[in-house]
Fold this sequence. Notes:
Layout: E1 34-39, E2 42-47, E3 59-63, E4 65-67, E5 71-75, E6 81-91, H1 95-100, E7 104-112, E8 122-128, E9 131-143, E10 148-154, H2 161-168, H3 185-188, E11 196-199, H4 211-219, E12 223-229, E13 252-257, H5 258-266, E14 271-274, H6 276-294, E15 300-301, H7 305-308, H8 315-329, E16 333-338, E17 353-357, H9 364-373, H10 377-386, E18 397-401
Parallel strand pairs: 1-18, 3-12, 3-14, 4-11, 14-17, 15-16
Antiparallel strand pairs: 1-2, 5-6, 6-7, 7-10, 8-9, 9-10, 12-13, 13-16, 17-18
Helix pairs in contact: 5-8, 6-8
Amino acid sequence: MKTDPRQIKISEYTYDLPEERIAKFPLERRDESKLLVYRDGQIYHRIFRDLGQELDDTLMVVNNTKVVYARLLFHKPTGAKIEIFCLNPINPGEYNRAFQARGNAVWACMVGNLKKWKHGDLFKEFEYNGKKYTLKAQHIGPRPEDNTQLVCFEWDEELTFSDVLDSVGLVPIPPYLNREARPEDRIHYQTVYSRLEGSVAAPTAGLHFTPEVIASLKKKGIQWAEVTLHVGAGTFRPVKTETIGGHPMHTEYFTVEKDELIKIRQNLGKITAVGTTTMRTLESLYWLGISMMHNDQERFVSQWMPYDTVASYSTDQVLDFLLEWLERNGRDRIEGWTQIIIVPGYQFRVVNNLITNFHQPQSTLLLLVAAFVGEDWRKIYDYALRNDFRFLSYGDSSLLFGKK
């Protein structure tokens, strides 16, 4: 009889992470980070730039989302500081349109020091291409469904909201770094292949890649595909419940273009996911397809769907269905929202290998790693601690081969 994954105790997925092992800053050169390799139960390490020497016939799939400078600091006339963290676009509701909006937009936000913002609008002056502008923020009210606040922004219609954020926004570096963002974070906290704006946290496994590493992989014949999942602030939400069943997963938007879906379908059995966000996207594809087989308007993968649904279709059948659906409806991409949680007991449908950083104790990301490699996650983390690996977002990386 299988154990109910909701009963997994988060206290069993912990380890001692000394503060000094958390990488507060990145290495000067991305691809000089350490790379732990886990293959067939064996563990050893090398340098990330040698990644291609560990891989052969595989499709490497990356998340091409781009981090937006989503933290905005305002000051009231009284001097009180109000921090507004833009999370999800509401009007316009589509990410691309929201960043290209001119003049005004409404976002769901987290607001720091909200109790000091009882009434009145906030204003912030800034420069763009040598010209002065003003950004206004109006608090509309709470959004109970996700504990955020609705904020309406207004600015001069000459600029897009992307221009505004680029001018006045701060890089949303992880809170556990315990430091303020620096100008160089704008470069370091962004993958070299980032393309589509929408994330408030970087897909950090991709931070190790350089153009030289990518070129060496392609020269070896390793194929390359891109998906998009816009990482939400919920990725940093700690698990506060005794069992994982009480932890509400955050919801994130993802999209996969038709050409990339074709590559994934053609390379089933040899997929390498770069990062947990790519892993969640690829695995969500399968479950989204299952949902659409029953209702082709369904665009949401719920947290526990993989554990509560009896899926009698193979992965190639589901991906074939999605490709046929795109063809039939004249669409060029699959898009949806996912709340999927991957914990021990999950059956992987798409991903064979995983590149990922080292995650916080008692986190959903550590549970994902444990789901992928089993109890050997303890050996992997013990090895990393003994061999001076750097942990978390700006830390070192690992290449984990799944069971054959």
